[in-house]
Amino acid sequence: MAIDHPEAVAAITAAFDAYERALMANDVATLGAFFWTDPRVLRYGPTENLYGPEAIAGYRAARDVADIARTLENTRILALGPDAGVATTEYTRLKSGRRGRQTQVWAQLPEGWRIVSAHVSLLD
């Protein structure tokens, strides 16, 4: 396995950046398209456990976006061969100052790079 496969790092970085732009714009349809459309996809959040694309989409459509703006730091992209990788970052919400962490597992599927597992947590 080639750790930090250059093409995979570039592709995951581009997908991660596009996901972040969609998140900041609260573009629910685009956010949903980044996730694997399989019942095994999951997203663990600070207060919720979401299993399957429908649960993730439902959460996105109903969530409060009052404190959505954030800055990122210590973002890392690690490719695990040409078809999978992990994106991690720390963030600070601008309105509340709350800090958190985010981990996304990305896989290159026939439809493109998709998040197959995600975990978001707050530090306080």
Automatic annotation (TrEMBL):
Name of a matching Pfam family: AtzH-like
- The name under which this protein is listed is Oxalurate catabolism protein HpxZ
- What InterPro entries does UniProt report for this protein, alphabetically? AtzH-like (IPR024507), NTF2-like_dom_sf (IPR032710)
